Amino acid sequence: MFLSALPIYPVAGIREIEGKLIPSARPPLMERAGRAAAEDAVRLVMDRPGPILIACGPGNNGGDGFVMARQLAQAGREVQVAFAADAQNLPAEAAKAYTDYLAAGGQTISDLPAAPAQGWALVVDAIFGIGLKRQIEGRYAGWIQTLNAQPSPRMALDVPSGLDADTGQPLGTAFRATHTTTFISLKPGLLTNDGPDYCGDISVQRLDIDAPAWLPAVGHAITPALFRNQLVRRPRNSHKGLYGDAGILGGNAGMVGAALLAGRAAQWLGTGRVYVGLLDPNGPAVDFSHPELMLRRATQLPERLSALAVGPGLGIDANAAAQLAAALARDIPLVLDADALNLIGTDAALQSQLAARRMPTVLTPHPAEAGRMLGIGTAAVQSDRLRAALDIARRYHALAVLKGCGSIIAAPDGRWFINTSGHPGMASAGMGDVLTGLVAGLLAQGWPAESALITAVHLHGAAADRLAREGIGPAGLSASETIVAARGVFNGWLVEAQQDANRDVQRDSRPLITLGKH
């Protein structure tokens, strides 16, 4: 059964939910958070010997740490709490957590103690929470460096101190957690940019709060539940004409392989026919590895296509720009990648033509391409990936995926999704071409553009994950290998969706009225 997609809230959204709940919440949210963190800590350390070190900061994150310390001590664990701030300056709820901890027999020390001979069972970062927007300096920077050097498990409360919870940008010195317990909901910075490298494994503790009931979420983490309704069994009475004609336009001199990869990906995902239009005048007439693909010159792609992808190996010469302009004028769904995006980023006429399109358009930039499309540098894109993805989607009236760690999908209406499948082995040549082919294949088969993009992005990463579990990668994973794995994962989803549907039918077929015996 497919797991539901978890909502994601930026810091402003979490603050809005907290503001509605804090006045009346019983038990208080901080008490719930500290208790949930203590439960996660117990599961994490199990029978690991040694005391637990909790470093508490001067705000509410520190308050969570005090509640956690009290709960752990009452459960019989040895706890040491480092707290260097002035208790009189703590926020009201954190001050209560501090006094409750002391009243229960707890003590604090003003600096991090030396590690015991057997090491810490666990070190906990409760220094700064999701509201931090400045670099950490001085004493707390030193504390974080010391905590990061510990060989024990390292746990962060809500977000690793020094990591921007909205962007995933480290703010100078940042805590590197092996585990993060986050409260109420996921935050974007935990899932994208550098966030996953600092957060480790993430546990979401909802604290008995149904966040979407208080504030509808516009962001979600991708799971197959988001495209479950598109995973339907094909009729036995099928023919290739039912599953669309996909076109791939690209393959300039020296880059034919990019177009072939995209074409193969579309073909192996079940597209009825795939045409590959090559700009290289000396390009091959047949793909001998996959002769099912129909290779053409770029100008000879069929007029009647179900979807067209432009960009893999396209090049940026005048002919490429002319072919792109012609494609933008076509009244069919488009996928634009690679050099198609680079050409658009430097040509105002192409930008206007793209923004004026009425048929679905999908853009798949990596950060450098996104920067060119927005007229900013790559570093600016990476400093706030969510904003960049949303800006592209709004500016060009298109669906966009900003590729990278925690790929972000943005819709023109402001909704967004973050993907968590995949691994670093996907940072290799040709992977973007495969993704383009997967999107084009689903569009050609009649999938709605948003579902096609979400599915392709998640499938691409899931295929790489499957290969890694089988010992193929992460290092050395090739784009071609992911095409085969994607077909396997996709068909697995189809089977699982059919099983779910069968269970629903069986449940719905029960009699509405049970007649007794007379």
Q: Considering DSSP H and I runs of 4 or more, what fraction of the residues is helical?
A: 25-40%
Largest sheet: 11 strands, mixed
Strand content: 5-15%
Give the strand order of the largest sheet, numbering strands 1, 2, ... along the chain. 1-9-18-17-16-15-14-13-10-11-12
What characteristic shape results from the CA principal axes? Answer: elongated
What's the domain count?
A: 2
CATH architecture call of the largest domain:
3-Layer(aba) Sandwich
- The third-level CATH topology of the largest domain is UDP-N-acetylmuramoyl-L-alanine:D-glutamate ligase
Given the helix and strand composition, which structural class is it?
A: alpha/beta
- N- and C-termini, Cα separation: 41 Å
The CATH homologous superfamily of the largest domain: Ribokinase
Q: Which CATH top level class of the largest domain fits?
A: Alpha Beta
What ranges have pLDDT less than 50 throughout 5 or more consecutive residues? Answer: 510-518
Number of continuous helical runs: 17
Number of strands: 18
